[in-house]
Amino acid sequence: MLSNQRGSMEDLMPCISYCFLTTNCMSTIYKAYVHDDYVMVAFIIYVYIGLFMLDRCLTAFHHLPPRESSPKKTFLKFAIWFLTSSILFGFVCEFAPLFSVVGAVALFAIVVVGCSGLFYVYFFLDDKPASEESSGKKMEFVSDQVCKALTNMMRKLLLQASALRRLSTAHSLPSLLTSSSRRCSSSSSKTTSPQPPITSLEHLDDGPSQATSKISIDRSALYNPPEHSHEHSSDSELVKHLKGIIKFRGGPISVAEYMEEVLTNPKAGFYINRDVFGTEGDFITSPEVSQMFGEMIGVWVMCLWEQMGQPSKVNLVELGPGRGTLMADLLRGTSKFKNFIESLQIHMVECSPTLQKLQHKNLKCVDEDSHNGNVDKRTISMLTGTPVSWHAALEQVPSGLPTIIIAHEFYDALPVHQFQRASRGWCEKMIDVAEDSSFRFVLSPQSTPAKLYLMERCKWAGAEEIAKLDQIEVCPKAIELTHTIAKRISSDGGGALVIDYGLDGIVSDSLQAIRKHKFVNILDNPGSADLSAYVDFASIRHSAEEASDDVIVHGPITQSQFLGSLGINFRVEALLKNCTDEQAESLRTGYWRLVGEGEAPFWEGPDDQVPIGMGTRYLVMAIVNKKQGIPVSFQ
Ligand code: SAH
Q: Which of 61, 80, 131, 206 is 20 to 30 Å from the Cα of 503, by its Cα?
């Protein structure tokens, strides 16, 4: 009776396991599909079918008499070996880019050894003469166990595949940081607190260290189906989409995934369909504050070009150019230096079609037929006659020319994973849908793939630094981007300038949302507010140095030191000599905002609009090819 029950349970387990696997594969395929990740879609389908066939082959194989030697048995053994090896190789090819070169090679080596071992088990060990029954049983046991373990491992890998792949594309703690020192709202507000609102909703009862944090622990496990309905008729497109992902996934999504969707979802992301900058928009950035910012960056770029030996062609790349104001001011400011201007090929890396159009307009671009043919169009900025092109990612910018890269307020828009210390160790903060259909934070009940990045980040920090922290943010995309930048600079020569607000060390809990110049709840009406996080400059330095021995990292220094050393004081004085009273007022305010610290002392306007200086809150770092020597401002 008991053995019958056990038998029926054993029959049932594979069915349950397959239902579970099928649901997860479907949600992963859906997710990969909505992100246009067709390679992932094909990969999951292949592995899913492969696992199914492997199961069938294993069952048929174990139903054969142990000592039988027939073509059918040989075929089954070959099929099992082939399916196992090809799936394992598939996983390695898919996820090797997540690892360093050494890690990827090690992974390949493990798989090669594993597959060879399997070949040995099936075709040599298992094929020994059946003289000894006892050793025959042992051999059967080995091949059986090896294959079962591998199949189970592959199932688990398949379940994690989506999250791992999402991390790879694209491709870290004391007190809470106050948001007043982050991305600039257009004015300070004495009536509203500069602290970001508390976004967490529920009580955390997981150990003493979270006394001030309110996050619920997701006890349903990551892959359990949600019990609540997530549909709300008044939900925006993006909210429906986010809830759809959570629903199909059958569990919460990481903060990074939420941030990425909110900012850059191709249909409804914050940046995608509108101009979010300036007083009419949601926040203001340095190039929008004053023309002097772009002009000073122009001075730095030109000095680096000189140090590079004045190459006749150079790629000038801007990552996330917003309205294109920085580049326009840079071109205007340097337009008199003919050799420099004639060497430039401008590449704008921008994901938003709306902002691309705005950049096209602000750079006064015209599309003209190329000289060599009728198909290709060239786009020229009429400000200086410089060719301009647009790309969705840095990898798409043609290589082979010396390159100068500018990343102003770009890194802060890259998605971060958040971790919280709990009694059971570091847990990832995730976003789920609550019973009332609003979003809420939960803690992952088990380890998540992003933990790898946390471990990687902690490797670069001292144990004491980490011991002090209860929360850590890590930004894998920042590390990946820095790798790409360092490799490009190493192979093509040149340098990169990174300007952003952040810390020269691990960042604790800095993610914030700004709508219409006010800090708002991160989870409130996603897509209608900017999300940004402190930049971890130390991790940029480590990843650049790790990526190439040919590059050297300078800084970070404060924006005030940087602009001061480039001569912004002389520039403001020169401009003040020839302007109206109104322009003079705006120049003074702009200058203060760029280099000052705290509230402007001379301000006579309304109290709630007193400008806050960005001079010490923004940091500047340079990554340059060692051949170029030390760039100006960092000497
Ligand atoms: N540098 C500009 C704008 C900063 S806001 C300024 O200082 O005014 C961030 C910019 O990066 C926007 O233009 C946004 O559309 C772009 N962006 C954000 N994430 C991106 C991504 N993943 N790929 C390309 N562009 C991105």
A: 206
